[in-house]
Design goal:
By secondary structure, the protein is mostly helical. It is about 65% helix and about 10% strand. A two-stranded parallel ribbon has the order 1-2. The longest helix has 22 residues, at about 85-105.
Length: about 120
Amino acid sequence: MKELSNRVAQGAVRKILEASPDAGIKTLLEVIIASQVERLPDVLIPEVIGRIKELLRDANLEHRDLPVRQLFGDSVALEEGEIDKVLHEVHERLKAAFSKAKAETGGKKRIRFFLK
């Protein structure tokens, strides 16, 4: 609870929660602002704590599409003896895609790729 109280008190977290479409979160923020932060444990119930954690986690996550063709190239056939080579290439391409995405976000967000 102490850690969550400290995080709610931070301005960045407050901005994220203020942007939430969840009316319950907005009401909670109004209560927190109107009252003392030390009383926060009296207001929070497990469901609200879970929702706050979910909002904070999602605010730090960026979704991107990654075409499967980008991982496997134009090859449409694979022989058994090529498995290790192909998997190594896919591994390297995935690492490069994550590195590029992290660089584009300044390393401040977690990246999740949806394979298309």
